Amino acid sequence: MLGFVVLAAAGCGGGVATNHDSSPAAAPVAVVTAVAAADDWPASYEAGGVVRARNVAVLSSRVVAPVTAVHVVAGDRVRRGQRLVSLDGRELDAHAARAAASRTGAASSLEAARAERRATQAALVLARATHERISGLKEKRSATAQEFDEADSALAAAEARAAAAEARVVEAEQGVTAAGASVDAATASASYAELVAPFDGRVVTRHVDPGALAAPGAPLVTLEDTRGFRFEASIDESHAQLAAVGAPVEIQLDHTAGAWQPARISETGAVDPSRHSVLVKADVAEDAALRSGQFGRMRLRGPSRRALTIPATALVKRGQLTFVFVVDGEGRARLRMVSAGETRGDRVEVLAGIGDGETIVTAPPATLMDGAPTTAGARGAGAVK
After folding, report:
1. Which of 68, 309, 296 is nearest to 195 (CA)?
2. What is the dihedral of CA 333, 338, 343, 345, to 10 degrees?
3. How far is residue 207 CA from its own chain's centroid?
4. Same domain, 116 and 187
5. What global pTM score does this model have?
6. What mean pLDDT do residues 114-123 have?
7. Distance between CA atoms of 344 and 128, rounded to whole angstroms?
8. The CATH number of the domain where 328 resides is what?
9. Which H helix or E strand runs over 68?
10. pLDDT tens column, 5-32
11. What does DSSP assign to residue 363?
12. Which of 331, 321, 319, 329 is nearest to 368 (CA)?
């Protein structure tokens, strides 16, 4: 407790020591008070982390080709299907044209095979009719055995030619199917010359410029989905039990001016044996100011403990020190230094400096001085219970 300031007044009758608190000129200051009392205060653990987009796509080429144009820069917002990077696709287009020509040739071969099948089927019909006629004549002894043998041989040859024609038709049909598949593959490959956005989002990084050689696996553009973000933080292994999926947490981001936002844990990773930590991810509310890589803090709640808390408005900051006004038994405001702990919403924990049951000023006016008489108004709704 701060001491009183003692003033020495000198007069004709001698010096008299007087406390300024007893000055009749000091008018009472109207204040709102509250009685400090211990309450349940959930334990918490904080860890630093960063904002990450839920979906991040690193686009790369599926073919080896020179880059002819890059249509976006970092920071651009793009729509699904929007062109991002163009490659030199002349060779791919040539492959597609060759595949299309092969399909046309295969279709012509199929038509020829079908025409041949029709011819062999007609010859087979004639051979069967001739065989039946010679067979009837032979039974009547009007045809020689040689004539019957010739008709039987012609029928067998016609059947063989018909079977071969049918096989060539099947082969030609398979050739058309294969040629069509080749066209589809070549067309798909030709489409690789244009890289488009797989979803609505923002371009994070542009990795190449025109003239560079694109190759499979080499990143060209990094795109993030701006429709959802997560806050990722690594917490100590000893606090992993607090990070259950679905558990409520609070997130504080730099751009929110210190405000804590409610969130819920959506994913927890395994314990990293090298760092003895667990990666925790929590979904955060959509905000136009969110950017990947923004720093912040995650607060996890633990079991409750008894703690003395007061309204945050009761604190008086003077330099690096923190004070509160305590109303003594005579109704005077005494400026007392305290050790403040964690702040949650409109409450702050007091670690030392005041005791249970003491009366404090919840919102000290600027004119309130140490030792000033007070007149207490109604107790505020923020009083500690």
Report:
1. 68
2. -10
3. 21
4. yes
5. 0.53
6. 92
7. 101
8. 2.40.420.20
9. strand 65-70
10. 333 333 333 333 334 444 455 677 777 8
11. S
12. 331
Q: What is the pLDDT of residues 301-326, one digit of tens each?
A: 777 777 888 888 878 888 888 888 88
With beta carbons less than 8 A apart as the criterion, state whether 332 and 370 touch: no
Q: Are residues 182 and 201 in the same domain?
A: no
Side chain identity, residue 234? S
Q: Domain containing 64 — which CATH number?
A: 2.40.50.100
Residues, the chain: 385
Block residue for tokens 């945050």: 312
Q: Which of 383, 311, 308, 295 is nearest to 351 (CA)?
A: 308
- Checking if the pLDDT of 347 tops 80, the result is no
Domain count within the chain:
4
pLDDT, tens digit, for every residue of 173-192? 999 999 999 888 888 888 88
- For 207, the domain range is 58-84+194-224
> By the 8 A CB rule, do 74 and 57 touch?
no
Contacts from 160-167 at CB under 8 Å and sequence distance 24+? 161/120, 161/123, 161/124, 162/117, 162/120, 162/121, 162/123, 162/124, 164/120, 165/113, 165/116, 165/117, 165/119, 165/120, 165/121, 166/117
Locate 223 and state its tokens. Answer: 């795109």
* Beta carbons of 57 and 188 less than 8 angstroms apart: no
Distance of CA 307 to the CA centre of its chain: 37
pLDDT digits (tens, 9 = 90+) for 211-255: 999 999 899 999 988 888 888 888 877 777 777 788 888 888 876
